[in-house]
Design goal:
This protein has 360 residues and is α/β, with parallel strands linked by helices. It has 8 helices and 18 strands. The radius of gyration is 21 Å and the shape is globular. About 3% of the residues have low confidence.
């Protein structure tokens, strides 16, 4: 633990107010404050320098004030406060997954110089008190940015959703929506390694080409070019779908349900088409779950972090052998983080969206 702390300039992305509808860059703001690289006396936390930040779709839910409890807390927007006769606003930093370097440690499990991934602030330097949520990075012979995606939360999400929820078998048919994203591109490759027939959908020709030529999907299509999603799915799956990895919701889910095979499985990972709607769309084909005895299960990656060691044992060799590849959409600079996050909901990113804060 440090006895003296250096004071440094600290750029931060601030969350300004709760969002209704489609979020905007102006809902966040870049500010510069000062930070002392010193832990309070007796602290068991860490002082870290943030290197890479992860933009993830679940963060949209944190921009909304929930009337009912959610699985993840909302961001705290700027709040009015007062001191004597002065009024001022206390702003809250956006937080999310990232990769960081430990500068000071009050936790015996970590030491200065360690690299970690987990929850941190959207800022240059952070004090992390919830160290139990951090993972120490032991394998540095892969890009560190992979720990925001392939070897981090999205990778674990793909692994848990596909293998633990869907229990795939060789020869089964697999459909993945939003398939070129941080999670979908991995699910497809896991499915191919398992011996499945794999089809993915995405929102541009560039992304469709990636799915087929980079990630090895058997087929892929641009859902924006398909006026009848049900017909498209019947074209690619004439005998039905065994496994659907759900990332989109809405009309896509409604089209998938009647195309499921008997005893099919649906892993509900996300529903990005619904995140910015004030009134979510209804689903009309739920009877298919009964008729075809389909199991549809939502899941949260937090419940599967105990499998992280097993996950690494599976994925690291596959990366080094060239059996798994990964595409990142990298932007440089904390000042570009708000635009990168908002771009997720317009489909501007190609692959895993990463923000580089510092490469040091």
């Amino acid at each position: 633990m440090a006895s003296d702390g250096v004071e440094v300039s600290n750029k931060q992305v601030i969350f300004k107010d709760y969002v209704t509808g489609f979020p905007k860059e102006s809902d966040m703001e870049l500010r510069t404050s000062t930070a002392k690289l010193k832990l309070p006396q007796g602290s068991t936390g860490l002082v870290v320098k943030n290197l890479y930040l992860s933009c993830d779709p679940y963060m949209r839910g944190r921009m909304t004030k929930h009337e009912r409890p959610s699985y993840v807390q909302s961001f705290n927007p700027g709040q009015m406060s007062s001191s004597r006769s002065l009024l001022f606003i206390i702003f809250s930093t956006v937080t999310g997954y990232g990769v960081a370097k430990v500068l000071e440690s009050g936790d015996p499990k970590f030491k200065p110089g360690d690299l970690v991934w987990g929850h941190t602030g959207w800022e240059e330097y952070s004090v992390i008190t919830a160290t139990e949520s951090l993972f120490k990075i032991h394998h540095t012979d892969v890009p560190l940015s992979y720990y925001t995606g392939l070897l981090g939360m999205p990778g674990m999400t793909a692994y848990a959703g596909f293998f633990e929820i869907c229990s795939p078998k060789k020869g089964e048919t697999v459909y993945i929506s939003a398939a070129s994203g941080a999670v979908g591109q991995l699910v497809g490759q896991f499915a191919k390694l398992t011996g499945c027939y794999v089809v993915g959908s995405a929102g541009s020709k560039e992304k469709v080409d990636l799915l087929k030529n980079k990630f090895g999907f058997d087929e892929a299509f641009n859902y924006k070019d398909e006026p009848d999603l049900d017909a498209a799915l019947r074209r690619y799956f004439p005998d039905g779908i065994d496994i659907y990895f759900e990332n989109v919701g809405g009309k896509m889910l409604d089209a998938v349900l009647p195309n499921m095979r008997l005893k099919g499985r649906i892993a509900v990972c996300g529903m990005i088409s619904q995140y910015n709607l004030e009134k979510p769309e209804g689903i009309h084909n739920l009877m298919s779950l009964i008729v075809k005895q389909v199991r549809m299960e939502g899941f949260l990656v937090f419940s599967y972090y105990h499998l992280y060691g097993k996950f690494l044992e599976t994925v690291l060799p596959a990366i080094k052998e060239g059996k798994i590849t990964y595409v990142e959409d990298v932007v440089e600079g904390l000042e570009n983080a708000p635009a990168a996050l908002i771009g997720l909901f317009a489909g501007r990113n190609v692959g895993k969206q990463v923000v580089v804060v510092s490469r040091e």
